[in-house]
Input
Amino acid sequence: MVVVSAVPTDRDIPAVYALIAEIADRWVMTATPRNITITFPDEATALASARQALEQAGRTDVSLAYRPTIAEAIPLAQEWAGADGTVLMPVAQPAIGDAMEYFGRTFEQV
Output
C-alpha cells in the first residue's frame, strides 16, 4: 500500500498521520498551491511528523518521501506500487483537483 497524502495544517495532522502509519508500506507526502487559503506542512515538518507517527505505530520500516506537488508525487507512488500495488490518496480537496488535472480529467468526468 503506497499512500500519497496532502493534509492541510488546519487539520489534526497527528491523528491523520497515525491512521496512515497503520496502513502504509510506503508514504509520499505532498502539498498543493491550488487554493491559496489552504496551507500544508513544509517538507521538514511533514517528514518529522510522519516519522513520529510511524515510530508510535511501531512501523519504522516504512519508506518516506516528500514531493512538492501532486504531479511529482503520483509518479513516485506508481513506481513504488508497481503493477500489482495500490496507491491510496487521502488528500485535501484542492489536491483532488491536481490529481484530476494530472490524469487529464475534468470535474464533469467524476
